[in-house]
Amino acid sequence: MQTRVDIAIVGGGPVGLSLAAMLVARGVAADKIALIDAKPLALATADPRSIALSFGSRELLSTISAWPTAATPITQIHVSRRGSFGRTLIESKDYDLPALGYVCRYGDLVHALDARMATGLPVFRPATVVSLQPGDAYAVLSLSDGRELAASVVIHSEGGVFGEQSAKTHFRDYAQIAITSTVHAASPPSGRAYERFTSEGPLALLPQADGYAMVWCVAPTTAERLLAMDDPSFLNELQRGFGQRVGTLTRVGARHQYPLGLNAAPHTTPRTVAIGNAAQTLHPVAGQGLNLGLRDAVVLAKMLARDLSAATLAEFERQRQRDRSTTVRVTDLMARVFANGSDQAASQRLLGLSLGVLDFVPPAKRALAEQMMYGWR
Length: 377
Prior knowledge:
The protein is an alpha+beta fold. It folds into 2 domains: 2-48 and 106-168 and 261-334, 3-Layer(bba) Sandwich (FAD/NAD(P)-binding domain); 173-258, D-Amino Acid Oxidase, subunit A, domain 2 (D-Amino Acid Oxidase, Chain A, domain 2), CATH 3.30.9.10. It has 10 helices and 19 strands. The strands form 3 sheets. Strands 5, 6, 12, 13, 14, 15, 16, 17 and 19 form a 9-stranded mixed beta sheet that branches. Strands 1, 2, 8, 9, 10, 11 and 18 form a 7-stranded mixed beta sheet that branches. Helix 1 (14-25) links the parallel strand 1 (2-10) and strand 2 (33-36). It starts with a strand and ends with a helix.
């Protein structure tokens, strides 16, 4: 049996769920929107991964009453280069804001968004798209559970580029592995997040509840060695790489790893468009990936609530180009330049000192802070 809708959203993560809620908030009938999610809801809401949300993302999520209650505010961001005296400190009070951003569990955000799911919105879960056949009036999606869906517009919001449009010419391999975990320290979190650049990649500690969410980007061989360590040995290595800014590190949670790369090749057809990680997968430096995807969602919801034509999808790509390209360039530059040489290299010392200079150039510092908090909307 074929289900017919106006809009099909492929991907039930935070970006896809947010788009569905934003469309309904703008007056699109819930039964005209379908959501296809590969994961069972219970699995998604139990996901313990930590995610960083900018202050701008809180504003967007609050408009649809989907702000997760268990979110830890970031009031300061301390950025430094290992082996250099230079550093910059960005503080929310300088911008008359309660926080620069927040840290929460992925599962808590999915739960908050699912609670806002409109009654009558068709949900296909768990299911994946096996094939998509475009037509003159609509596209037909064949699902893994045997059902079929017809939609005037298909939005890809899965965690990766959908179908065969991966455009490897746009892919950059950073030759890094991100190790994620939670860590606790002798000094309790005070709202300060840390981004510390090393010769192999950035190391971030973000305040979350009574500890820190950790993202440590290193070379693959280093990752293999770190993951094989017992907890005390790993904490010693982390302490050596991070320093004593939060006191002695006392405990580490389960460690996970994933390879890092840049894939910024959004693909649009007269009936399909990609948003979030399906359009651009970024390096986690500065934690901009999800925030960029939420900005995609709010713009697309506004446009699709008025018109479902191919011209609308093309105009969406044009409107989002500046924010996307700026965010991609900033994160890519930080990922490459600050991890391109030994700690003692003259170029890296100069880069580290430039962070200190940033504190004395308010316009440049404000531009960086506003990009992190809001992007180019």
